[in-house]
TrEMBL record:
Entry GO CC: plasma membrane
Gene3D superfamilies named in the record: 1.10.287.130, Histidine kinase-like ATPase, C-terminal domain
GO molecular function: phosphoprotein phosphatase activity; phosphorelay sensor kinase activity
SMART domains: HATPase_c (SM00387), HisKA (SM00388)
Name of the protein: histidine kinase
Length: 406
């Protein structure tokens, strides 16, 4: 749906077009009415003048003509348009129009009398035209007032867009209108509170991750030196899980820093897939690799490898059987890099699984922390790529949709 401002501009344009059409047809009707009235006046004067012209009272005809603002002419213009004419063998009356001049020609017994008048003033102004102009003025004024009233809303929308981009210090100027002023104050209060929460969260996550790295490294070293005992394998597994969580927290926090973090270069999709598969330790019988198009990607290889690896690891953990399929191909919409695995349909909307630390209840017994998909989503967002999901034929299909490079 178009934005409010686009709708207002569209409504204004439609109103202007409709007003122009009304003005045009009103003017045509007004001109037609004026012309009919003028022709009636000319015909009436011609009839009265013909009576006196037959009686030979040319002086009285002259007085009629002058009284009504007409002037006698010697000859009718060659390209004058005869509106209509009537008469008999002795008399003939012709009503003619030439540009803005209307007149009549009288013929009787070989004598001719021609007179015309300029009716420009009758065509220039009318009450209808005045009202149409006033309507245009009111419409433009109303449009300007609406835009002035909604201008603070435009500023608020721009501020919201900036806030979503990570500019947490954005502030909205307080307008004079009470309701909008209340809205602007509420927005400013909200940004202060949210920015404090986000900054605090980032600080806590960053410090927790870094602070845990040191004791984990020491614990790993101590385990290497520890003699074998039944509990050692359990401790090793716990430390590996904790290390994986810390790594995911640090990765999640790192991708929040924005596009400036990326080191974009050109590379082929095959390079990306091979790097991920080498680090995933998948067995050949568990993998079905299909690269129908070895297309080129412009992006950060390291971060896109993290995103693809998360999808491969998820497929490995949650598949109910069959092979993990990794597909690279070209489509009408762009290039596609997909990872699919067999499994039951998700219980909730896919967008909920993109939220940090969100996990499905039926997967609680499977190792994981609910950060994988949110990291993938954020990395692809930084690359202006689309992260898509489909469930078809008992298969979960996650794929990157990439624009074709020129």
């Amino acid at each position: 749906m178009p934005s409010l401002f686009v709708q207002i501009y569209s409504l204004f344009c439609i109103s202007m077009i409709l007003n122009a059409m009304i003005a045009y047809y009103s003017s045509l009707a007004s001109l037609r009415q004026n012309e009919e009235s003028i022709i009636s006046q000319v015909a009436f004067l011609a009839q009265q003048s013909m009576i006196e012209f037959i009686n030979g009272n040319t002086t009285l005809v002259e007085s009629f003509v002058k009284y009504y603002g007409f002037s006698r002419i010697e000859n009718m213009e060659a390209d004058a348009h005869i509106v209509y004419g009537y008469g008999n063998n002795l008399t003939l009356i012709k009503i003619f129009r030439y540009q803005k001049n209307y007149g009549f020609m009288l013929e009787y017994s070989g004598n001719t009398y021609i007179a015309q008048k300029n009716f420009s003033k009758e065509f220039i102004g009318s009450d209808a035209n005045l009202w149409i102009l006033l309507d245009f003025f009111v419409l433009v004024l109303t449009f300007a007032i609406i835009l002035a009233i909604l201008h603070p809303m435009k500023i608020l929308r721009f501020s919201l867009e900036e806030f979503t981009k990570g500019n947490y210090n954005i502030k909205v100027p307080i307008p004079k209108e009470p309701q909008l002023a209340l809205l602007a104050k509420s927005f400013n209060t909200m940004t202060i509170k949210i920015s404090k929460l986000i900054i605090t969260r980032e600080f806590v996550l960053r410090n927790i991750g870094h602070e845990l790295k040191t004791p984990l490294s020491k614990a790993k070293l101590a385990l290497e030196l520890m003699p074998q005992n039944p509990q050692k394998s359990i401790v090793i597994k716990c430390i590996r899980n904790l290390d994986a969580l810390v790594s995911q927290i640090l990765t999640f926090e790192k991708v929040q820093e924005g596009e400036d973090l990326l080191d974009k270069k050109d590379f082929f999709v095959e390079t990306l897939i091979l790097r991920v598969l080498e680090a995933s330790f998948l067995q050949e019988e568990d993998l079905d690799l299909e690269i129908s198009t070895n297309f080129k990607i412009y992006g950060d290889l390291d971060f896109l490898a993290i995103a693809l690896k998360n999808l491969v690891e998820n497929a490995k953990k949650y598949k109910s059987g069959g092979k993990i399929r990794v597909i690279a191909k070209e489509s009408e919409r762009g290039f596609i890099l997909a990872v699919s695995n067999q499994g039951q349909r998700l219980q909730r909307d896919i967008q909920e699984y993109f939220e940090p630390f969100y996990r499905d209840k039926k997967h609680e017994l499977i190792a994981g922390y609910g950060l994988g998909l949110s990291i993938v989503s954020r990395i692809l967002e930084l690359h202006n790529m689309q992260f898509m999901y489909e469930y078809q034929e008992n298969q979960h299909v996650f794929y990157f949709l990439m624009p074709k490079l020129n």
